[in-house]
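Quality-control log, excerpt.
Job 1 of 2 completed; input and output follow.
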Amino acid sequence: MTTRSIDKGTSGEDFAVRFLTSRGCTVVERNARVDVDEIDVVVRDGRSLVAVEVKTSWNGDDPVAAVDDEKFARFARAAHAYPRLIARLDIVGVEFGEVGATIRWLRGVE
């Protein structure tokens, strides 16, 4: 992964975190390492602990579509191995365009 893609991913993750907190979620942890896998963001949404996978697009592609079966399996494996009980798996897609960003928040994906 190049430095530029890391910066883009971090920007998308920062944007997603601001979005989630504006919707009432509280960030518990970011970039949570679980064995060899990672959860981008762990939030508390009401009384539920939620693992969030964040995908970012800068080229017009659907960022949520980038979560293929293999990526989702790694994400789910990390969430199930997280030391606290994760109640829900969410995906947040951040698509940056010329005039701003679009957010898609998919709750309770399986």
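Job 2 of 2 completed; input and output follow.
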Amino acid sequence: MKRLYRSDEMQLEKEGKLAWLTLTRASQLNAMNNDGTIALNRVAQAIDEDPDIRVVLIRGQGRAFCTGIDLKQLSIEKTGIPTGSESFSPDRRPRRGIVAAEQNIFF
């Protein structure tokens, strides 16, 4: 597998036409923090720029797929979540198939 992106929050790898996005904050049950939202935008850009990727499979390390927003961080500091054209929003339609997997169950 070829690594396309890596941060403390997630990594993106690809093999052929399939990309694997793995959330890597297992000790925090893969809760999404501020850096995670920035990383997700970078991953979305990398996927968008790679014409070979046809399907993206999203999974989480450890026992949880993703528990949502990191409420501990939210209570400590202001969020730095990108807005406007920088954001990963539902209005931006993906040009690839996206599949989420939790404990080997695919959605």
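Post-run check on job 2. DSSP finds two helices and six strands in the chain.
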